[in-house]
Design goal:
With 430 residues, the protein is an alpha+beta fold. A hairpin with a 2-residue loop joins β4 and β5. It contains 20 helices and nine strands.
């Protein structure tokens, strides 16, 4: 006979194998384990209790349900009396999304790990290999210095893992809606959509989230897949596909602050994986909800582009800006993110209001110094030849300049046309 802890876990696994909003259906799933229902009268009260707590929520983990069973007095009383016997039995898992929005998400139904391997186009052994932390080098690691100081670790998945992650992105993550305030990493949205709601405002506040991707842990990612309705084994396998714990040997290459090293050593969203941008938006959904509500209450606008957060408003908002900055910072911390206080900016109309390299005082515009610098480079290319201006040694200097021109044209079409006319005068054949 299984121990009490093992019995509780078996029962919890059976209960979460399907929706928890129907106590009768939960009793049916548990019946093969408890045998005679007349001797398991505690089961009805247990399923009703679990249905009230979890019925309208995302699918909970087996551990969470097991904790509730262990704290259910009728079950404990029956176990002591010898009437809580649990017989191991196979329970077929099903999709169990939470009530409301998740039921309409067009995600593919995946009930077992075998189904998951088939959905991703992987062999069973391949899925098992890819979802094992620390047993294989599935990533390439590359350190980059940030312009603002410090180091950024780019973690790039190798070919087979990248294939699996792309399938997760296309088949699952792209089917789950994000908050309307999130403008980054979304088809049909651009940095212009991020900044336009904040043009011509009396005051502009800019926050920056520190170590955005490493701050999103595997626990957050697991919650997304459970909310979508996937059984816990499938949700955990998907989580391991989308997260990564940086090996100790990689962390030893650089001298990092303790907290930064700890974030990377904990399973997190790797910056460089195709699933990370979309998953980051989904994991920040509650943060966006709370900040959007806070901004609305203060009469302000709110948008987010990855780790950049913007708030703007008129004079009424400006009068409460100090209190707002403190409150918004508290919300960010409560949601498990970290502010980079050195990059927090409060910009009034008399100052240059800028974000994402765009000036916002009257309309989205370019920084005058950047425009003048690009104009001077193009002019000198015409006068002295393009090689005289390729000081950084770009292998395709023409493509480099065209990229900058495209950015200028995207932000300010009139200025873009003027610079394009100068570019057309460059003699590239010499």
């Amino acid at each position: 006979m299984p121990s009490q802890a093992h019995s509780i876990r078996l029962l919890a696994a059976a209960l979460v194998a399907g929706p928890l909003d129907d106590p009768v259906a939960m009793v049916r799933r548990a019946e093969p384990l408890v045998g005679d229902l007349r001797k398991a009268r505690w089961l009805s009260s247990l399923t009703e209790k679990l249905s009230r707590e979890f019925g309208a929520q995302p699918r909970p983990t087996v551990r969470k349900v097991a904790d509730r069973i262990a704290a259910h007095p009728p079950f404990i009383k029956a176990w002591i009396a010898g009437q809580g016997r649990i017989v191991p039995a196979f329970i077929e898992p099903t999709m169990a999304p939470a009530e409301g929005g998740p039921r309409s998400w067009p995600v593919p139904p995946i009930a077992t790990l075998g189904d998951l391997a088939g959905e991703l186009g992987l062999h069973w052994d391949g899925l098992d290999w890819l979802t094992a932390y620390g047993t294989a080098g599935h990533y390439r690691h590359c350190w980059h210095e940030k312009k603002s100081g410090g180091l950024r670790l780019i973690e790039m998945p190798k070919a087979l893992l990248k294939h699996g992650q792309r399938q997760v992105l296309r088949r699952i993550l792209d089917a789950i809606p994000i908050h309307e305030a999130a403008k980054g990493f979304q088809k049909g949205s651009s940095v212009r959509d991020f900044v336009e709601p904040h043009t011509g405002k009396h005051i502009l506040i800019r926050f920056d989230l520190e170590d955005f991707f490493p701050s999103i842990t595997a626990t957050r990612v697991l919650r997304v897949f459970l909310t979508a309705g996937y059984p816990e084994p499938v949700a955990r396998a998907l989580t391991r596909l989308a997260t990564h714990a940086t090996p100790t040997v990689i962390l030893a290459e650089k001298s990092l602050p303790w907290f930064a090293s700890r974030r990377l050593a904990t399973p997190h969203l790797p910056q460089g994986a195709p699933t990370s941008p979309a998953m980051a938006n989904l994991c920040a959904f509650r943060l966006d909800c709370r900040l959007a509500g806070l901004a609305k209450a203060a009469g302000a606008n709110y948008t987010r582009y990855a780790d950049d957060l913007l708030f703007s408003g008129d004079e009424d908002f400006a009068r409460q800006v100090k209190r707002f900055v403190i409150t918004a910072g508290a919300v960010i911390l409560e949601e498990g993110f970290h502010l980079n206080h050195r990059k927090t900016r409060v910009m009034r109309q008399a100052q240059k209001q800028h974000a994402a390299g765009i000036v916002l005082n009257e309309r989205p515009n370019l920084d005058r110094r950047e425009f003048d610098r690009l104009k001077a480079i193009l002019t000198n290319c015409v006068r002295h030849g393009p090689q005289s201006q390729n000081r950084d040694g770009h292998s395709d200097f023409a493509a480099h300049l065209l990229g900058k021109l495209s950015w200028v044209t995207f932000i300010h079409p009139d200025k873009g046309r003027k610079l394009r006319a100068i570019y057309e005068g460059i003699a590239w054949s010499e």
